[in-house]
Specification:
The chain is built from 6 helices and 9 strands, in the order H-H-E-E-H-E-H-E-H-E-E-H-E-E-E. The protein has 221 residues and is α/β, with parallel strands linked by helices. The strands form 2 sheets. It has a 7-stranded mixed beta sheet with strand order 5-4-3-6-7-8-9, with helices on one face. The longest helix has 15 residues, at 3-17.
Length: 221
Amino acid sequence: MDSTFEQARFNMVQQQIRPWGVTDDRVLEAMGAVARERFVPDAYQGLAYADIEIPIGEGQTMLPPKLVGRLLQASAVAPDERVLEIGTGTGYATACLGRLGARVVSVELHPGLAQQAQANLAALGIANAEVREGDALAGPVAGGPFSVILVTGSLPDEEALPALEGQLSVGGRLFVVVGTGAAMQALLLTRVSSGEYHRTALFETSVPALENVPQPSRFVF
């Protein structure tokens, strides 16, 4: 194990993730165990643990560590829960979900990234995460209902939320970032019965948009 990366991982947990309100010991342990440097392009190895979005190809970026920590904590993933992740990227958050003991189905639009994620997860011996290539917003994802759904890109509005909520089991949680511009809202939606959902506004942030999401209509005067 590279001691430089090991120290950087420790510093990430203590100096970025904890101070941003992530106190769940299971989340901190998972993020402290997953080698984030394996999931970034070679040119960005030295920035693997920086508090920034990292380009990973195909016009996509890896979320900053503290945001990954917040979404993992908010969704309260329990061992053996079935999780749908929309937007795999190179598989970092997928690996953290696997470390939490979840049974993960992760859907990635770009074939090249899906292949990278599969290879990264296999290299770390994470066998409880399945990466599928496709558009998770095109219709219900096979294998549901899910205990947790995590959307790693933002949605411009709430139009797509009912279709995602409908794939939750009762008691299931949906983490999603909604909005445009610099002040988007991170939401946690919990299915409390077959037709009732509880909404919690978590924090403001800004996340790159998920691809293939219909953009809201704009009136022209």
